[in-house]
Design a protein that fits this description.
Arc Repressor Mutant, subunit A; RNA-binding; alpha+beta; three-stranded antiparallel β-sheet; 5 strands; about 35% helix; rRNA-binding; ribosomal protein
Length: about 140
């Protein structure tokens, strides 16, 4: 018989740097999760991705056990990394803080595709381009 799900929690944590301090501790402790078990498992599974933000979707069961799925980094994080900027524009309508090529947008869309709500790679590219516009990053051919 399948275990009953108590909660599903999504956290964005730097790879290999999870610890039981806030925000991870309070988010998981209220559901009775073994914090050190989660922290050790997460850090072991993300040790090869240091420097990235890796979202984890944690499914917590009634008996206190859990399982988690690692997702791809947030689109904004990948765009900033590819454009070589520290942050997006304060006012994306009047400011441009960087540029990406269509090829870089395609690479980001391919990396994010399985976590996106898109039917094909072209639709995923349009979503990434929209995020670029909101961040003040220009997409050039």
């Amino acid at each position: 018989m399948a275990k009953k799900i108590k909660a599903i929690v999504t956290l964005q944590i730097p790879a290999g740097k999870a610890n039981p301090a806030p925000p991870i501790g309070p988010a998981l402790a209220q559901h009775g999760v073994n914090l050190m078990g989660f922290v050790k498992d997460y850090n072991a599974r993300t040790a090869n991705r240091i420097g990235e933000i890796v979202p984890a979707e944690i499914t917590i069961f009634q008996d206190g056990s859990f399982r988690f799925i690692l997702k791809s980094p947030p689109t904004a994080f990948l765009i900033k990394k590819a454009a070589g900027v520290a942050k997006g524009a304060g006012n994306s309508v009047t400011e441009t803080v960087g540029k990406l090529t269509r090829q870089q947008v395609r690479e980001i869309a391919e990396q994010k595709f399985e976590d996106m709500n898109a039917l094909d790679i072209e639709a995923a590219m349009k979503q990434v381009e929209g995020t670029c516009r909101n961040m003040g990053i220009e997409v050039v051919d």
